[in-house]
What does this fold into?
Amino acid sequence: MSTSTVESVRVRTIAIIGNPNSGKTTLFNALTRLRQKVGNYPGVTVEKKEGRITFHDGSEASLLDLPGTYSLTANSPDEKIATDILLGRTAHTTAPDSVICVVDASNLERNLYLVSQIIDSHLPVVVALNMIDIANSEGIKIDFNALQQQLGVPVIPTIASRKMGIDELKKTIETTPKSNGVVRKWSVPEVFARECDELIDLLKNYHKVSEPLAFHEALDLLTTQTPSPHQLDRFSYELMEHVKKDHRRLDFLGIDRQSVVIEARYKWINNVCAIAVTQTKHADMSLSDKIDRVLTHKVWGFVFFFALMTVIFQSIFTWAILPMELIGDGFDLLGQQITRVMPEGDLRDLIVNGALAGVAAVVTFLPQILFLFLFLGLLEDTGYMARAAFIMDRAMSKVGLHGKSFIPLLSSFACAIPGIMATRTIESPKDRLVTMLVAPLMSCSARLPIYTLMIAAFIPSTSLFGILSLPALTMLSMYLLGLTAALTMAWLLKKTLLKSAPPVFIMELPRYKLPSAKTILLKMWERARLFLREAGTIILGVSIVLWFLATYPRLENGTASEQINQSFAGRAGHLIEPLIRPLGFDWKIGIGLIGSILQREVFVSTMGTIYNIKNADEESGTLSLKEQMQNDKDPVTGKPTFTVLTAICLMVYYVLAMQCLSTVAVMRRETNGWKWPLFQFGYMTMLAYSVTFLVFRVGLWIGGGA
Amino acid sequence: MAWVHEMNEVSLSELLPGEKGTVERISHAAATVRQRLMEMGVVRGIQVQLIRFAPLGDPIEVRVGGYRLSLRRNEAQAVLVTKDVT
It folds into this structure.
């Protein structure tokens, strides 16, 4: 339980809602002055952002940043939460005391649709008419008083990015009455209105639905094509039968139930705009258009896209490596200090090799997560992210996915953790799940140490056709294998287990804008914090268990190699040997596999321990790990333990297997349970095992048993 | 040439870049797509303009009132428009 439980006086809650790209989050940041916390709504992985707002008289209220939505018809989990909270439909929250509805002034028509729905809820609403500077520059003049009069609720012009209008907005929220009391101004055919009223009465009298909610539910019931699970759940059989009859009657009269209300609202909106808005000039080509002519161009669009991705990856690899090494060195130093200060014993060993190693394993991921979210934040905040999805959608649709799946998958080449965290933008839950399930197949940077070791030791550095070096080609093949596996699995999952219609691709292409440093830094900080807290605790526990397995039972005196051989982990390595023999692996690799469940690169250090390499202590005279592995012979057959084929098999295994507990922990968090991370771990291990087996057999057949 | 066919009803996916049209109706093919499009302002009587195709030919970018919407051709097929004669 992390939330505070003491709440004697109920704090007033204000919800802030608006279309995506309306500047909602910027306004939220300006109102709360960064006094906010991020969590999850119970039971779903929708981000809950809550902040504090202080009024002029010193009183405070809680401000809730609801997910961006175009309407109160829930199309995605995010939108469902926004709607449920706003209408007080969730079990754990009541409806907010008042609502700020953020509206993009340069795109008033579409934004007013949501406003009209919220006004109908009778909640006290203040409209924040945001981005008036942009509207002005596009020749849109809005008469605020006329708009306020037409809507019947207060309208405050704001420019959230420059903190303009914030005080007026606060003052107005402070004084909004309990209910907006606006009489509905849009009209539907009389027969429809009559059925609607009848339904409202039934809902209020027999289902204890409150007045504004009853109106919303009645509209939903009348306009729906097939009843939703929520409706079947909540309302009686009799009511649903009544609704069915209404449907038949209205259909018979030729009333298009689905469009009648939407069109009525838009008709009203058109009237409002005709009165309050004047378009002084028609900008023939906006700046966004000019940019898009290049960035979504057939040739230049792709050139820019791939150049950008290359720059991002290059910088993650070059910039993130340095802090990662520094963190690693820092933890080594800390370990040495503790070793010096503490008396020798199990406790010291536990702290240094168990707890500290676990903490280090988590913290070393931080630079990558921060860098990736810096870039993702930039892409998102400038408006380019939507273009990336626009460009890549066709290619992604080939495997049944959405254009929005591309960036998370690409990010996973650096690290699957931020990749999985970045899938939150995907609306369809099933498509999001498929993307998360295949993301760890992309070759992340943690696999590099293994590839490098194996290639350096066993792949001859000759070149093919004079130009392609064999080691580079091997490396490339591993990346391609991961990519192919990810796309194939995505296609397969979409066809079978997570079968669903091809995702609907209806996406706004927002105007380009300058990114806000505050928004991006906040996002980076939130992501890093969530990762440390959620993954940190699980990994700390597991690394202590792994330490225990590698340390006990204790050997009185012996080398580290003998110790690990004799430990539970070593015994487990021997135990699983028959299981991994078909892959060409022996018990030493078995220990490596078990040890690196925490984190892939641990394999390299485990091998070092097994082969008795002490990095700094001994200098010349000892062979490097690479040479030790090359010289190692099977005591029974006398053949080398490692061959080119074993090396390839090992790499293939690591491409496909889920040897990363941080990813498992993040999956548990993002899917809210153990089911999917366990499934993922299972299918990836099985895939790795069968493909490696196949490679080994084919390799033996080609090489004649080498 | 355009005056030859006055009731020039075509689907949104058949417009060429730069061409404008007025939305007549959205076919009932997929209820959720229809609802979503209408709620995002693609309603009867609104003027739309095809801006461009994505580099790989799909999806398409359309101007709807004051903003830009992208959708797959498959979804755009359900939107029937009368081509504006200019």
Remarks:
- The radius of gyration of chain B is 12 Å.
- The first strand of chain B starts at residue 9 and ends at 11.
